[in-house]
Amino acid sequence: MWPFSRRVPIQQQLARLAAAGIAVNAGVTAEDLTAFASVDGIERSPYRELVTVLATAIEREPFTPKCDRLWLCDFECIEDHGSYRDVVARLERMTDRALRLDGIEDRVEIEEGVAWVAFRHAGRRVQWDMRVDDDWLDPSILPRYDALLADAGVGFRLFADAGDHGQCALLGAFRPDEKRAFDAFARMRMVPVAECRM
Known about the structure:
Blueprint: H1 10-19, H2 30-33, H3 39-44, H4 48-54, E1 70-74, H5 83-94, E2 102-109, E3 114-121, E4 124-129, H6 141-152, E5 157-161, E6 168-174, H7 176-186, E7 190-192
Antiparallel strand pairs: 1-6, 2-3, 3-4, 5-6, 5-7
């Protein structure tokens, strides 16, 4: 029998995900979880459907993430100054600010072909120049951030779902024990971002 054919109640899925570090943020309601996915669909496709739901923002004010540790990152998100700053801030949120980056700033001039993001880390200024391709995110920012996590030895690492999400990437931040727990039940192939071709 196909492993996803067994129905798993949402509350059971949420409990197992929370034990693997994937907890629902305060203020997220049951209605938020089922705004674009039915209870039946979530329960008949255990974990995969719910993880995707949790990786999005709520569809009402204040439009915050449903779960800090997951992010369905739309690569078509670079519009102007602040875009790369927001990406780094979201990565920091995913990792509970493990790197303690300060002074995050960026410059985005699409017409001039200029984009960079800078911040202070471990007492020094770091600047990453980004490739400009209209309003598309330079995906190299993900393994660069992950390399900082590895070098700092803070425990967190970034992973991406190997499945097809169109112009998006489904990202997750895990500590080693959480990733092992997640892999034991989720049946999703989340691979290190350093191994992904995006």
